[in-house]
Amino acid sequence: MSGNKKSMMGMVCLFLMVFASVNLFSNGYDTKPLYVEVGLNFQQSSKAVVNLQTNTGFQIEKFEHNNFNSLLSLFDHKEVILRKDAYYLGTGGRFVEYTGEIPNENSSLNLQGPYHVQIGTISPDLNQAKEQLSTLKSKGYQGYLSYEAGWMIFQGPHLNQEQAQRSAEEIELLLNERATVIAPSQHRVQVLDKVGELIFVFDSREGLYFKAVEDKGSVNLISVDNQQYRGAVTATRLSGSDMTVINKLLLDEYLYGVVPREMPASWPIEALKAQAVVARSYAAAEIQMSKYKHLGFDLSTTTSSQVYGGYASEHNNSTRAVQETAGVLVMYNGKPANTYYHSNSGGSTEDSENVWSGSVPYIRGVQDEFSLNALNSTWVEALTAQEIKAALAKNNIHIGDVQSIEIRSQSKNERVLELIVYGTQGEKSLEKEQSRRIFGLKSTWFDVKIEGQSQVESQVQRQGQRQSGELHILGSSNGSKQAKDVQKSYVITSQGPREIDLSSNILVYNGQNYRQQEKVNSTNSAGTGTFVFEGKGFGHGLGMSQYGAKRMAELNYNYQQILNHYYTGIKVE
Predict the structure, then answer these.
(1) Are residues 64 and 153 in the same domain?
(2) Cis peptide before 336 (omega within 30 of 0)
């Protein structure tokens, strides 16, 4: 979750968290969940075909009542292929989904179809189903097990209804068993061996998982398209989609693959422990938030949740940090806190409502000298007017050629709350995280000027362009800065009230002396110039700064002290 987070996701999370805070972990929810489900492939990345491998064979298990229960063993298969119930071209374990016009049976295409023949009725007993399968195979028919609300024997696959019906009639005569054509299913998943022979099909709504047969002398791993993971893997289908691939594993085993992806394993152990605890707390809170529940899992593998790299990402130092903080969470009012974190605060973290929308009591801005003089504590980004115009257009914002940019208001921690972009065909207000997201900036803590100008000169130019004037007023209650237009306003002089004349020269007082600025004509060359953003920090600025945690650990703070510095009113337990 470090670096440039997905701000829209964060906004939704904060809204849900505030809305549901009263009932967050009610109804008997365990605040320290045992398992987590991670979406490896879903929506745009969902799969029509997935390859699974283990070193010990497969155990197919059903997850019920918070436990895995063995259903079927495939000891002789160290590699299987999962594919949705559809049409495919290919042989020998290599398949591509076919979505073209379905040819007749005499076509030269090596095409496999999604029709099956069910023989007999559903049985609750696996051994009975295996006996029926053995009988079918002894008669020369290709058969395989099916699990859909119980055990069944299927034969096939067939290209179409007519082909399947002919096969069903032959089997009924031969075995004196009822044979029924089974149409393609939007929920069915086929399981093939490495040479492409069907060995098993199942309804993906049944909650079946593939695990490596346990070998107590080693870490039990399962590979998904050559990426290794602990725990179990399943494939589900949602409304006829491709397969959503999910990794279900123990929460702390998940953290083994998260902590080294979110924080370098070479960093001090107390910083790694702090990272382990916030990653655990974030996951526990997100599981209850159910952001991805409609897709069948809890968390993604990306910065939309936390970066998870599976077994290949694990490191002994990070694993040690997870193990030495086992079960420890950041708690607020007896519930796991949604512990947002980021790369570098730039010197001050931020209040949640100044970045997204909801006010979260434990996400309050704090002074953070520990993040200074580190990577991205300061930064500079230059964007031409054309680049800014293109970035706006990409977000369906069209205001013509960009003329100027104005920071309208800032938080007491100096992050931008409102940025105004002025163009030849209008203006656009960007609030909070919008400016960072649209322009690809490292944070919302920045100043902006036209290249070659001072900040004051740039501000004066903006005033001249709009033929108005502004004062930045420091709020007495919250310290935020608000820009106020003083056009048509009056000041008290020694000669009495007098209207502010924006056509005259402007004197800027910096607390020590005055500096005179010449009037700037409303037509200027900013539309072809370059805007320079000078900023601080990297990320949204909420919660723990990872570089700050590193520095605190170097100064011999322990992980509890680190967490209490960045999160307000919490308990580490």
Answers:
(1) yes
(2) no
> For the chain, how many structural domains are there in total?
3
Task: State which residues form the domain around 76.
Answer: 40-212
Q: How far apart are CA 437 and CA 4, in angstroms?
A: 8
Q: Are 276 and 321 contained in the same domain?
A: yes
pLDDT tens-digit profile of 69-96? 999 999 999 999 999 999 999 887 888 9
Q: How far apart are CA 51 and CA 377, in angstroms?
A: 43
Question: What is the sign, positive or negative, of the torsion defined by CA atoms of 322, 325, 328, 331?
Answer: negative
What pTM, to 2 d.p., does this model score? 0.82
* 165 Cβ neighbours under 8 A, 6+ residues apart: 181
User: Residue 493: helix, strand or coil by DSSP?
Assistant: strand
Contact 178, 172 (CB under 8 A): yes
Task: At 381, give phi and psi (nearest 5°).
Answer: -135, 125
Who wins on pLDDT, 16 or 47? Answer: 47
What CA–CA distance (Å, rounded) separates 514 from 508?
A: 5
Based on the domain organization, do 427 and 394 belong to the same domain? Answer: yes
Residues 63 and 111 in one domain: yes
* Shared domain check, 315 and 418: no
Task: Give the DSSP letter string of 160-206.
Answer: SHHHHHHHHHHHHHHH---EEEE---SSEEEEEETTS-EEEEEEGGG
3-state secondary structure (DSSP) of residue 124: coil
Q: Are residues 122 and 266 in the same domain?
A: no
Q: Per DSSP, which regions of 393-503 are E strands?
A: 402-410, 416-423, 426-431, 446-450, 470-474, 481-485, 490-493, 496-499
Mean pLDDT (the chain) is 86
Are 8 and 62 in the same domain?
no
Tens digit of each residue's pLDDT (9 = 90 or more) over 278-333: 999 999 999 988 889 999 999 999 999 999 999 999 999 999 999 999 999 999 99
